[in-house]
Design brief:
single chain, 302 residues, alpha+beta, 2,3-Dihydroxybiphenyl 1,2-Dioxygenase, domain 1, nine-stranded mixed beta sheet, 17 strands, 23% helix
C-alpha cells in the first residue's frame, strides 16, 4: 500500500514537472493588446506660447489637415496651465502644448502619447515588459495619463479617454524615431516588442551613416511595427552632429520637394538638405517654435 502511494506521488510530481517544462518552453504569456491605432500615436510638441499659432499654421500649410480649437487646461498631476490642441494631418497627429507656467518635471521629456484601451492593463503590461512608471496614472479633463520609461531612457506617455475618440486613418504612418545606445538597444527592443506585440521589420547592422549625419560610416538601424504604428531605433555612439537626435518623428510624404517648399514658405528652415538612403529621399526641417522633424518620400523604382 505504501509502495503504491509512493508511486502515485512520483507520477503526480512527474506530471507537474512536465506541465511546468512545457509552459517554460512556450515562453511567458503574451501581454494584452492595448493599442488603438497609429492615428492615435501623437507626437508631443512643447512650444513657447507666442509661437504656437505660427507652428500650427506651418504644420497645416506643410502637410494639410486641421486643428482642434486651442484650449487652456491643466494636463499634469501638479498645478500648471497650458494651451493644448490637436493637429490632425494625413501623415501624423500632433499634441501641441504652450505652457503658461513652468513645465513640471518630467513633462517635456515624453516624446509621444499612445492611446490605450485600458490604462491599468497597459501599466501592468509596461511594467512586466521592463518599463518603469515615472509618472503614476493621474486624471486629466477627459481621461487618464501616465508616463513610462523604456530601457535606454526612452520616455513615452500612455493615455486613455473616457470616451474613445474617432480619428481618421492616416495616409502614411509616421515613424517614432528613438536614439538608443548599443548597451541598451537589445533590452529596449525586447521590452518594447513585448509591450506593443509588434515585430521587427528590419535590423540593419550596417545602415548608411548619412542617415545620422555621418556619411561614409555605418550604424545599426532597427525598424519595428505594431498596433501603435512605426518605430525606428537608431543605435549610435552619441557622436551626433546637429540636428540629429533632436527629431522625434519622421513623416512620409509622396512629393518631398513640394512638401519642403511648402514648409519653407510657411516659415520652416531646412537644416539638412535632401539625401538618399534606404530607398528614400529625406530632409530635416525646423518649424516655427523649434520643432525639428525628418520628412521623407520613397524613391521611385528604377
Amino acid at each position: 500500500m505504501r509502495l503504491a502511494t509512493h508511486l502515485l506521488r512520483l507520477a503526480l510530481v512527474g506530471g507537474l514537472l512536465f506541465v511546468a517544462a512545457s509552459a517554460s518552453a512556450q515562453g511567458p504569456a503574451r501581454t494584452p493588446d492595448v493599442a488603438v491605432g497609429a492615428q492615435y500615436d501623437t507626437t508631443h510638441v512643447y512650444v513657447d506660447p507666442s509661437q504656437v499659432d505660427a507652428f500650427v499654421h506651418s504644420l497645416i500649410a506643410t502637410f494639410g489637415g486641421k486643428s482642434t480649437p486651442q484650449a487652456i487646461a491643466t494636463v499634469t498631476p501638479t498645478p500648471s496651465r497650458t494651451s493644448t490642441q490637436l493637429v490632425f494631418t494625413p501623415v501624423g497627429t500632433f499634441s501641441v502644448f504652450g505652457f503658461r507656467t513652468p513645465v513640471p518635471a518630467p513633462f517635456g521629456s515624453e516624446r509621444t502619447g499612445y492611446l490605450v484601451t485600458d490604462m491599468d492593463a497597459a501599466v501592468r503590461s509596461a511594467r512586466v515588459s521592463g518599463a518603469e512608471v515615472v509618472v503614476a496614472p493621474f486624471p486629466d479633463p477627459i481621461g487618464r495619463d501616465t508616463v513610462i520609461r523604456w530601457p535606454g531612457s526612452v520616455n513615452m506617455q500612455l493615455y486613455w479617454h473616457t470616451r474613445t475618440p474617432r480619428y481618421e486613418t492616416l495616409q502614411t504612418v509616421p515613424e517614432n524615431r528613438v536614439y538608443v545606445s548599443a548597451d541598451r538597444i537589445d533590452t529596449f527592443i525586447g521590452s518594447f516588442l513585448a509591450f506593443s506585440r509588434g515585430h521587427v521589420v528590419s535590423d540593419e547592422a550596417k545602415a548608411p551613416g548619412v542617415e545620422i549625419g555621418r556619411p561614409g560610416e555605418h550604424y545599426r538601424r532597427v525598424r519595428i511595427t505594431s498596433g501603435f504604428g512605426k518605430l525606428t531605433a537608431l543605435v549610435t555612439d552619441g557622436h551626433l552632429p546637429y540636428p540629429y537626435g533632436h527629431e522625434l518623428t519622421g513623416y512620409e510624404v509622396s512629393d518631398l520637394a513640394a512638401t519642403t517648399a511648402r514648409a519653407v514658405q510657411a516659415g520652416a528652415e531646412v537644416l539638412v538638405p535632401p539625401y538618399e538612403a534606404d530607398g528614400r529621399r529625406a530632409v530635416m526641417v525646423k518649424f516655427p517654435g523649434g520643432y525639428i522633424a525628418e520628412i521623407h518620400a520613397p524613391l521611385a523604382p528604377h
